[in-house]
Amino acid sequence: IVTWNVRSMYIGKLKIVTNELMEIIIKVLGVSKTRWNEQGLYTINEGFTVGYIGRPDGKRDNGIGLITKKETAKAMLGYNPVNDRILTVCFQAHPCNLTMMQVYAPKTSVKNDMMAFYEAIQNVFDDIPKSDSIRIHGLGVMNKCGERVEEFCETNCLIIANTVFTQHPQKLYTWILLDGKMWNQTDYIMVNKRWRTTIKMAKTLPGADCSIDHQLLIVKVKVKLRNIRREHVPVCFNLENIPKQKDDDVSVINMKDEEEPP
What we know:
By secondary structure, the chain is α+β, with helices and mostly antiparallel strands. The protein is 21% helix and 32% strand. It has one domain (2-236): Endonuclease/exonuclease/phosphatase (Deoxyribonuclease I, Chain A), CATH 3.60.10. Strand 1 (2-5), helix 1 and strand 2 form a beta-alpha-beta unit. It is globular and about 70 Å long.
């Protein structure tokens, strides 16, 4: 499970991202700040399913998405694009279903947007079945909002997966200034505490290249997805479209049959 702030998904960027997915064998990737408009769910030639949502007003700002491999998409139970900052996808898995939530937090300087964001994400979180294993991919800055993030995790019994393991600092930083003189941990993947033992690894991959300052954050979890059984739907014919014979035509045929010699 991976999250990545791609800064934009303009022409050619999606191809670069999917190439990285094939190189490092990733099944699910949550992307933030796509800058795409509207919403959609489609499959591309490389065998990936792309679900996304952006601003409906035409402005190219924010926007999030989820990219899954073809075999992973077969286990998809539900897809819920909430707004340009929140998107959820549910997968059929064993021993329980897996719900993934991709979020993109607003800037800390916009207090009203931040409050509305946490209110919306809490409402979505409350609607998720308690039996599901939950993964939240998030982007935010642990400064003034650090306490708010911590409070949200405590309220909903979540842990930040990329803070669980002891790693070299290079594998913890998710944002690095282009000149390499400043770095921070601003991207997170949260997991409900009940399923903490399913987390096997969490780190960043600095080698993944997308011409951005954010690092790709990957968390390896042990969960088995199950393909959804599609019921066979029998072919139904619309008999109303079959032209009906007139009574006169039938009577003529019968009369001709009677006139024919034995």
